[in-house]
Request: fold
Amino acid sequence: MRTLAVVPRPPIPVGLAIPPDAVAQAGAFTRSQARRAGWSDARQRTLLRNGVWVPVVGSVVRHRDAPDGPWMRAWAVHLTGGLIPCHATAGRLWGLVVGEDLHGSARRPIEPRGIHIHRSELPGSDLVAVGGLVVTSPLRTVADLLRGLPVADSIRLATAAMRDSLLDPADLSEAARSCRGRTGAGRARMVARTCAGRPFSPLEWRFHQLLARSGQGWTFNVLLTIGGASLVVDALHVPSGTVVELDGRAFHGDDRFQADRTRDQRLLAAGHVVIRFTWEDVERRPEDVLDTIRRVLARRIPVPGSTPPHPTHPGRQDPIEFRSLRPQQTRRDSVSRSREQTRIPAPGAPGARSAGL
Reply:
């Protein structure tokens, strides 16, 4: 698995009423540390009652002006009985999209309120030291999450990690293999297998599963170069040049309307046909989606001996290049570079044709 970097550690504001230990602990500290630093129990109760200090979990507190984030929460887990941050708590340190529940691994029986305890013997190969903490490694963390989270949350984690170039399908497969013999291993294998097409969102994941029923020839998150401009499309049927774009709530708000229309115009001018589906289409009307795709492909794919009606036509003056999006290229990076206008053949020029089906 590739090496993941921990998220940046935010600075602690200067001059806060906190023990010196808290600065090295991302703002988290225990009541006993405060007592050793000179705060009496009565003074501590006053600070808590006035909201200056905020309870985190158990006897761990933080100053209200100290940042509440992955680092502080990981330290809160560690300060509660020396637990090892794992699962979602470690996942957020590694930049993964997971919940904010606190999780810790312990060898001995311990049941602190507010922390999910995982009783396990973690080998040294599954642990790594970061910022004064010992946490589960990226491989062990991803494996624990894939096998422990509900399927919907695992898909959300995996797709977001691939969209942000943190993980790729090979990483997911490696994490799933490392789960062998543990509870939830089958779930982890299923997530890795169904993410082989590198979906960048749960909507794309659902669409990939649906599209598997429509036949072969599809590639996903493809970088197209049209007349010098670069566009990333959600799905491309290579034999017919048919493009499918998915309008999900997370990426296609009102501010994206015009940009999406401009993309469609460029693709149509280059000889592609563009079909757009929404979350509701994929989720509630999957058979209609499949029927639409099959009808379009039936009209786009040429019969033997005919001229292929798609952008690989040998007579075109502006050849189309396409390739799968590299792991380090996110959709946002690629789209931001598509500034140039597409060169369109004049009517009657070689390669010019209708944008219709």
